[in-house]
Amino acid sequence: xxxxxxxxxxxxxxxxxxxxxxxxxxxxxxxxxxxxxxxxxxxxxxxxxxxxxxxxxxxxxxxxxxxxxxxxxxxxxxxxxxxxxxxxxxxxxxxxxxxxxxxxxxxxxxxxxxxxxxxxxxxxxx
Length: 126
Fold this sequence. Notes:
Layout: E1 2-7, H1 13-20, E2 25-28, E3 39-44, H2 48-56, E4 65-68, H3 71-80, H4 85-99, E5 105-108, H5 114-123
């Protein structure tokens, strides 16, 4: 099974890739996979045009997981790295406007019960 993981930087990408979907093969920014295994195809949402092209290849074919952290925690992380907050705001807008209508599965990274939440979400894929 392939899973699509479009993420806003600093919202939990590495946590999901390393710990939650650690058994999946990591594939970044590809057009398709043919290995028949469990793949997590991921990209950062940094440029809406590139992400739109990336996602259009997979929409409706594979489940989408979006990790979410509290927006204030993400903003602090961006501020520490001297990234413009205006870009973060526009990425949230893109996520809501373009990706949310495709019914992604949101994984709340800051919640203590995130692992049980993921197990519950994965039951829908079987």
